[in-house]
Amino acid sequence: MPSFSCSAILFDLDGVLVDSTRQVDREWREWAARKGVDGDAVMAIAHGVRTIEVIRRVAPHLNAAAEAAAIENHEAGDQTGVVVMPGAADLVKSIPSGRWAVVTSGSRLLAQNRLRYCGLPVPDVLVTSDDVTNGKPHPEPYLQGAARLGFTPAECLVIEDAPAGIESAHAGGMKVVGLASTYPSEKLSAADAVAHQLAQLRLSQNGTGKLIVEI
Known about the structure:
By secondary structure, the protein is of the alpha/beta class. α1 runs antiparallel to α2 and α3 crosses α4 (64-77). The termini are close together. It has 2 domains: 3-20 and 82-214, 3-Layer(aba) Sandwich (Rossmann fold); 21-77, DNA polymerase, domain 1, CATH 1.10.150. It has helices spanning 21-35, 39-46, 51-58, 64-77, 88-93, 108-117, 140-149, 163-171; strands at 3-6, 8-11, 18-19, 83-84, 100-103, 126-127, 156-160, 175-179, 193-195, 202-205, 211-214. β7 (156-160), α8 and β8 (175-179) form a beta-alpha-beta unit. The mean pLDDT is 95. It contains 8 helices and 11 strands.
């Protein structure tokens, strides 16, 4: 049984705490149809990557900043089909205050709306696409999350569902548990361990106050 000792846990949002796969797919495919872009090409890279970077790659002729803002503002106002991931509420409630954060490739407005819509608390530390210069797979998002919580990267455990996020966390010097929700487990082989649902994770504290996460 894999076990990790850490001081804090950094969660990705979509595919980890909330299931937004259907909404994300619908939003991107409608956008691709309007813009004459290959929807399958978009979805091949969309998960775990900032909206602006997806647009830069699939439609470099468009104003990426303007398109990204329009997409994310529309997403923030339409949470149809978004649901909380099984086990998410119980897990975050079991973590001591100031010991967890959300690090997402979405905007702050979108992240806050999704968390609230799913009945999850908005953590004190919420790192979004609005806060970073370089999105995942660059290490900046997770490094910022660790720093804002006040812990070193090596003291943090990341929970991720996407290869780009796993790469980001590892590049920042953090251990990663992959969650096989958006991608099958074989696509998450770079993670230090893989779980199929959050309910598999068992959280406890040792005598020194360290968090122990078992799968």
